[in-house]
Amino acid sequence: MNFEQARFNMIEQQIRPWDVLDADVLHLLSVVKREDFVPLAHKALAFVDMEIPLGHGQSMLAPRVEARMLQDAAVKKHEKVLEIGAGSGYMAALLAHRAQRVISLEINPELAAMARANLQKAGIHNAEVRLIDGAVGAPAEGPFDVIVLSGSVAEVPQALLAQLKVGGRLLAIVGNEPMMRATIVTRTGEAEFKTSQPWDTVAPRLLNFPEPSHFQF
Q1: Over 90: is that where the pLDDT of 1 sits?
Q2: Could you give the count of Cα atoms lying within 13 Å of 147 in the half-sphere of its Cβ?
Q3: CATH number, domain with residue 128
Q4: What is the rounded distance in angstroms from the CA atom of residue 173 to the CA atom of residue 167?
Q5: HEC sequence for 11-36
Q6: How far does CA 5 lie from the centroid of its chain?
Q7: Predicted TM-score (pTM) of this structure
Q8: How many C-beta atoms lie closer than 10 Å to residue 108's C-beta?
């Protein structure tokens, strides 16, 4: 398989048409080797427009969703980032190239070990994977400039918003199937937040976040 050609096609045919036009993001997608973060059994699918199974009910997000989240996060070199759901470590690797430091939380021990090994192999030293329930975040390490949820939740978690710096932003995919919305919440003051929902998608659930009841009485 010609990985370089497949990577080029992924960027030009899936990612650019999805309004990912930031030159730095597109360059990053061409240098961080996505195939090195995909389980061996699925390597041939590394650049396909789909979620890739990681086992344990978890998946890598589709490439265009990762790329769009990366662009919307607009991480800067001096910023500290918290990621919820390390998965295979790929998103943490992308974020680490743009941030000063990344802490990635993963609830599954085997995925945490996989993410650590993949980041080490990729030579990334400013991203750390912790085996912890991401639903609580990492309050002792906060506040953060950016919090990225690499999966979906039913609603924006207040516990994580509290860990944002003023001026910081949280990115999550929020809602229920069949339609969820990419949600960017910016903390504009101690108790003020501004929310935008620029695009729609669907993503697998992150574990242990609250699921509000949908019963109507």
Answers
A1: no
A2: 33
A3: 3.40.50.150
A4: 20
A5: HHHHHHHHCCCCHHHHHHHHHCCHHH
A6: 25
A7: 0.95
A8: 19
